[in-house]
Amino acid sequence: MRSKSEKMKRLRRSQKPQNQPADSPQWRVGIGNDLHRLAPGRKLILGGVRIAFDRGPVGHSDGDVLAHAVCDALLGAARLGDIGRHFPNTAPKWKNAPSLHFLQHVRELLDAAGYRIVNVDATVGLERPKLAPHIGDIEKKVASALALKPGQVSVKAKSGEGLGAVGRGEAIRADAVALIEF
Ligand SMILES: [Zn+2]
């Protein structure tokens, strides 16, 4: 006799999204990254949290590298394209939109495709300022935009050790991975 969980698994596989091969696993992973140039007088926003600093990312939107990297990781996991496809910088709808709205929209796309987010992990590369005091707030905001519990989102910070564009304080970058299930 088949167990209830086996029946559930079969039911879920029969409901899987169309872009899913028949023998594919139940889990999917995605990767995303983003890099923006830093310039004086721009707001520094990470995961929707405003951080006091004299420089910020240059970009069409608010330049929230963390939100952008997480969007790409989630879209990649679901094989739904990338952030440039869903939020083209020519679209007036998204001009000056807070990047947290990008995250909310990506979550809706995944919902519609039948996916559930398991967890998100990200690292932000920034020489200054120190992000440690803001990490808790950033995790909460990202989790809330994705309708997740705070424990499902991890954000870490790393300086550039004085090397490369991040280390010279010329750029901010973020790398993210996401696990989703269906
Ligand atoms: Zn970006």
Q: What is the element layout, followed by pairings?
A:
Layout: H1 4-14, E1 27-40, E2 44-46, E3 49-51, E4 55-57, H2 65-77, H3 83-86, H4 99-112, E5 116-125, H5 135-145, E6 153-158, H6 164-167, E7 171-181
Parallel strand pairs: 5-6
Antiparallel strand pairs: 1-4, 1-7, 2-3, 5-7
Helix pairs in contact: 2-4
The structure holds zinc ion.
Zinc ion (ZN) binds next to strand 1 and helix 2.
User: How far is the first residue's CA from the last residue's CA?
Assistant: 24 Å
**Uncertain parts:** none
Q: What is the CATH superfamily classification?
A: 2-C-methyl-D-erythritol 2,4-cyclodiphosphate synthase
Mean pLDDT: 90
Q: Main sheet, how many strands, which sense, barrel?
A: 5 strands, mixed
